[in-house]
Each structure stands twice: as structure tokens, then as C-alpha cells.
Amino acid sequence: xxxxxxxVLTELIAEAYPQLETVVNVDDWMTQRFSLPAAFLMTRxxxxxxxxxxxxxxxxxxxxVLHYPKVxxxxxxxxxxxxxxxxxxxxxxxRGKASGLSIEIDSSTxxxxxDRRDRTEIAFRFTYIVTVPREDAVKINEFEIEEGHS
Length: 150
What we know:
Layout: H1 2-16, E1 21-23, H2 26-30, E2 38-50, E3 55-67, E4 70-71, E5 74-75, H3 81-89, E6 93-95, E7 102-113, E8 119-131
Parallel strand pairs: 1-2
Antiparallel strand pairs: 2-3, 3-8, 4-5, 6-7, 7-8
């Protein structure tokens, strides 16, 4: 599921910040193998809740790190406002076009930290529904009717 989560978050960031490179590989991020400005995305599963026999709800946490561009040795701050406006416009619900996954973001968990000189960190929790795959049942297309029972 993490791949689908990262895919929909990548689309969300690309819509809010089309100029940013997106990094999803933790090793690349830790060794700083990316060019500035960039957005690093990471998700962590929190839990699953059964909804019915056909689906369950997944709760996850997202962390987005916006790395600022550096111009003449000075970091140029990136605002969290484009993402915040996009989330408000969509009422904290986002559906990925390529991934097809629809996530519901818990606005009460949205946190933004600007205390680092080279980045802004954004975190929030979100949920999405997963359908349980079903086996194809053999369907009976012909019925035999016995006569003579009274």
C-alpha cells in the first residue's frame, strides 16, 4: 500500500509545487542525492479498521519536507501556503489522477514546522478505503427442474 500512498502524495505535491523535484527514496534523501529545491515524501502506516466484508480503512501518516533553494549562499524560503490552499479547496480530500487513490486528510492533525533554516516540514494523518479482493464465484447458469413432486 505504501507505493499507492506515495503515488497519490507525489501527485498532491506536484499539483501544489510543480517546480519541485520529488524524492521518495529514504537513502537518496539521507545522503542528499537530490537537487534543490525538492520535496521529500515519506509515509508510515498507523492502522487498519474493518468497515465491511468488502472493504477496510487504512490510517497513515505523511511527512513532507520542503527543501529550500539556495541562491548565493542564502536559502530562499518555500511557503506551505500552496499546499494549504489546495487542501482547503478540496476540503482536505484528494484523489490521485494516475494512482486512482482517494485520501481523506485529517485537518486537525496538519502540522507545519518552519524552525529549520533550510526546510519546512509538514505532517498530517490521512485515511483511505481499500477493497478486499474477492475470488470469482462459480455461477450456475443452468437449472434442472425435477417434476413430479407434489
